Amino acid sequence: MIGEIDIFGVFVPTVLVLMLIAYLINVVIGKVLTRVGFYRLVWHRSIFDLGIYVFVLAAVVIVSHRFVK
User: Fold this and answer.
1) What is the pTM assigned to this prediction?
2) Per the UniProt record, which residue ranges are transmembrane (predicted)?
C-alpha cells in the first residue's frame, strides 16, 4: 500500500483517508443502533462506540489491502 494519496495535488496520508471512511461507516452504524434501541442494553455508550470504531477501522484496512494487491 502506498504511503500517501494524491487528492487534487495535496498528499494525504492513507491512514487518514481510511480513518475518515471508518468514521462515516461508524456514524451510520450508530444511527442504526439508536433507531433500533440497542443502546438501552449498553452500559457505557462512549466506550462501546470506540470499540465499534476500532473494529470498523480494522475491517476497512483489511479490505483496502485486498483491493490494492
Assistant:
1) 0.85
2) 7-30, 50-68
